[in-house]
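Marked as duplicate of an earlier ticket. Keeping the data here for the record.
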Amino acid sequence: MFTVKNKLRQQYKAKRKALNPLQIEELSLTIANNCLTLPIWKKSNYHLFLSIQNQYEIDTSFLLNILQGKDKNVIVAKSNFKTLEMEHFLLTDNTPIKINTYGIPEPQSGISIPPSSIDVVFIPLLAYDSFGNRVGYGKGFYDRFLEKCPKDCIKIGLSFFPPEKTTITTNENDIPLDFCVTPEKNYSFNKK
């Protein structure tokens, strides 16, 4: 199981690295616009990851602009690599953001928000399958965080690519996505 996930991590990191900055920008804008068609906009508290540029992640600044334009509360995380837990802060004009040693832009301080009050989470990922199982960077930050969110919290992956054709093996700690938004289409994994 572990080796399959590692292989997917390497494969998708290489696929992302093959995109040039203009492609990343255009695809990220399309993904942000595709998010507008999701049934999520009546909620209040949205957790958004800030992009790691050196990992060629989706540029979430477009999505951030949409959320702020709709007067939504945007929550961002600070990762603790000793405990593998995240702290969550309300993003305001005064929130000091600093890039950590892993290249992750993070809030340094601010208004703390408990996971129990988060309605929607946008989740970084490397790969995912047609059942909403995902492969992240392998530290489990998001699975631990999502465990503390409300059961009806909407979990949305963002990806430049379509789902993997083969099913990704999961363990009991893995929490699947409800949606994944790509430049081509939105995938829904609602099991209800």
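See parent ticket for discussion. The helical segments are 2-17, 21-35, 61-69, 141-147.
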